[in-house]
């Protein structure tokens, strides 16, 4: 049995390493191509580390005529505001559904969860008409406001808060604390793994949001980095060295935030499965 177990473990490990390599190779090629001259991108034999590191690609992308730096800043603005609003609303709603007692609380929560079954694409046209009516179409608020409310975020925070003993809230109320103070000063700090996980997820979703930006934004000065990358590909005429440099710039924030908060990520993802 021990021998069979060892063999199975080796096979699983080898399969996992194979999958890691398959998933990593495109990123390695992208980074390598971003430092090459255009003539060297598809040169044979392939060189992972080019003889000449062409930093001009990054200078041309960032400081050139393509306004890529402006699109990067637009994405940063939209993403940061979306994350702040989404985390705040998730904390407030999660606290309400887990620590406050009111008639029909659990039924309302189940009804709220049921809206996750509605396909995202089905709401595009109603949102477009509504945004035009209220005057936020073709502004960054058309991207920020829908992202400010997350059903998944509320669900995760609620599940995590259910694990926190009620005695903490009751003791704070006896000392005269209100619900907002209890929520943000006592309960929310104890949910740090779940909140950091939500920050990573919300940041990734908002930063990579292409569909909403494509439909709700048509002013080039308001383009986010996803629209900018597609526009950049059209304007450069498929110069792969420049496109790869632009792609590397676009994924750097996601890598940075994940590396900075990865120690909380697994704990946060598994938090919702402990108590329902």
UniProtKB/TrEMBL annotation:
The keyword Transmembrane helix applies. Signal peptide: none annotated. Residues 72-261 form the ABC transmembrane type-1 domain. The keyword Transmembrane applies. GO terms for biological process: transmembrane transport. GO terms for cellular component: plasma membrane. The chain crosses the membrane at residues 12-31, 78-97, 109-129, 141-161, 182-205, 240-261. It is found in: Cell membrane. It is a multi-pass membrane protein. Keywords: Cell membrane, Membrane, Transmembrane, Transmembrane helix, Transport. InterPro entries: MetI-like, MetI-like_sf. CDD domains: TM_PBP2. Belongs to the binding-protein-dependent transport system permease family. This is ABC transmembrane type-1 domain-containing protein. It comes from [Clostridium] clostridioforme 90A6.
């Amino acid at each position: 049995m021990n021998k069979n177990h060892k063999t199975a473990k080796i096979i699983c490990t080898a399969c996992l390493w194979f999958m890691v390599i398959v998933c990593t190779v495109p990123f390695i090629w992208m980074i390598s191509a971003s430092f090459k001259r255009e003539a060297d991108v598809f040169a044979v034999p392939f060189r992972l580390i080019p003889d000449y590191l062409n930093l001009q690609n990054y200078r041309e992308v960032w400081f050139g005529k393509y306004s890529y730096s402006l699109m990067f800043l637009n994405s940063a603005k939209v993403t940061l505001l979306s994350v702040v609003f989404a985390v705040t609303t998730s904390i407030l709603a999660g606290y309400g559904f887990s620590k406050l007692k009111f008639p029909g609380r659990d039924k309302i929560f189940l009804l709220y969860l049921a809206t996750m079954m509605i396909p995202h694409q089905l709401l595009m046209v109603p949102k477009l008409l509504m945004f035009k009516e209220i005057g936020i179409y073709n502004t960054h608020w058309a991207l920020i406001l829908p992202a400010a409310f997350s059903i998944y975020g509320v669900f995760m925070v609620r599940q995590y808060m259910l694990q926190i003993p009620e005695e903490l809230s009751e003791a704070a109320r006896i000392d005269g604390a209100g619900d907002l103070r209890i929520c943000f000063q006592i309960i929310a700090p104890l949910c740090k793994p779940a909140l950091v996980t939500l920050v990573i997820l919300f940041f990734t979703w908002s930063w990579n949001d292409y569909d909403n930006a494509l439909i709700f934004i048509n002013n080039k000065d308001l383009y986010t980095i996803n629209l900018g990358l597609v526009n950049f590909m059209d304007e450069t005429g498929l110069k792969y060295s420049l496109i790869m440099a632009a792609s590397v710039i676009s994924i750097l924030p996601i890598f940075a935030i994940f590396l900075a908060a990865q120690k909380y990520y697994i704990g946060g993802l598994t938090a919702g499965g402990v108590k329902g």
